[in-house]
């Protein structure tokens, strides 16, 4: 064990204990943009999915997740598109992106430092004098060792639109996005479905970040928003 590690160990132990006492839950974050022209007389009216998901079980599972959150709109589901007052269309997708991350190493890199200078010089009447003190110094500073490298991440997106079935005019459009290094679209989709209806219908424009408590979500088998204490 290096000298630096010997010195650092007690500090690390103390810091770890402090962090454990003040630790916050693991969270998962989505980013949402939404726009609406939501009518005032929609409660109790019917909606239907315009997506044909009957032959795709994955897409059907996504439609079921969205339908589970549609209660926030006040609309009721029907399978008859002709009877529906509103149509719901969605698109779930994933794209791979590259992200640069930084990693800090425990042991820094030590760098020598040098410095020098002069003292003072002066004179006065009736007497005069001077002083010239040369000083120099050598010290050591350290710079944290940082490594940068790219990683592959998946950007999962759910885009949703609700439009008037008669006029074709959109009344609600929302997009939720989440980045993950390991989770699949199927795992992330419940969080995206909740996110597109969060604070429905909300204000127009702007970007909101929604945090979910991972542990509570696993315990309750449904996305649970993180609320700081």
Radius of gyration: 30 Å
CATH C-level of the largest domain: Alpha Beta
Using the alpha-carbon principal axes, give the shape. elongated
Give the tally of β-strands: 9
- Please indicate the percent range of residues in DSSP E strands (runs of 2 or more): 35-45%
The low-pLDDT segments are 1-22, 118-136
The CATH architecture category of the largest domain equals: 2-Layer Sandwich
The percent range for helix content is 10-25%
Compute the number of structural domains.
Answer: 2
The H/E string reads HEEHEEEEEEHEH
According to CATH, the fold-level topology of the largest domain is Double Stranded RNA Binding Domain
The assigned structural class equals: alpha+beta
What's the rounded overall pLDDT mean? 80
How would you summarize the topology of this molecule?
Layout: H1 3-21, E1 27-36, E2 46-49, H2 57-69, E3 76-77, E4 86-104, E5 109-118, E6 134-143, E7 146-164, E8 170-180, H3 185-196, E9 207-213, H4 214-220
Parallel strand pairs: 2-3, 2-4
Antiparallel strand pairs: 1-8, 1-9, 4-7, 5-6, 7-8
Protein described:
It is built from four helices and nine strands. It has two domains: 24-97 and 154-220, Double Stranded RNA Binding Domain; 104-146, no CATH class. Residues 1-22 and 118-136 have low confidence and may be disordered. Helix content is 22%, strand content 40%. It starts with a helix and ends in a 9-residue tail after the last helix. Keywords: Signal. This is DUF4136 domain-containing protein.
């Amino acid at each position: 064990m290096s000298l630096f590690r010997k010195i650092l160990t007690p500090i690390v132990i103390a810091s770890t204990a402090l962090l454990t006492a003040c630790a916050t839950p693991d969270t998962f974050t989505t980013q949402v943009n939404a726009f609406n022209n939501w009518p005032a007389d929609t409660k109790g009216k019917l909606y239907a999915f315009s997506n044909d998901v009957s032959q795709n079980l994955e897409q059907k599972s996504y439609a079921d997740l969205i339908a589970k959150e549609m209660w926030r709109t006040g609309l009721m589901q029907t399978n008859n598109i002709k009877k529906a007052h509103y149509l719901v269309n969605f698109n779930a997708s994933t794209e791979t992106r590259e992200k640069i991350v930084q990693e800090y190493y425990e042991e820094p890199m030590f760098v020598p430092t040098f410095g020098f200078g002069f003292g003072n010089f002066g004179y006065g009447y009736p007497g005069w004098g001077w002083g010239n003190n040369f000083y120099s110094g050598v010290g050591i500073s350290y710079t944290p060792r940082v490594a940068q490298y790219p990683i592959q991440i998946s950007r999962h997106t759910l885009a949703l639109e609700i439009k008037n079935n008669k006029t074709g005019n959109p009344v609600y459009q929302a997009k939720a996005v989440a980045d993950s290094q390991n989770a699949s679209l199927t795992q992330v989709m419940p969080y995206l479905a909740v996110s597109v209806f969060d604070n429905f219908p909300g204000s127009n424009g702007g970007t909101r970040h929604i945090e979910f408590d991972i542990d509570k979500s696993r315990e309750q088998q449904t996305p649970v928003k993180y609320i700081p204490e």
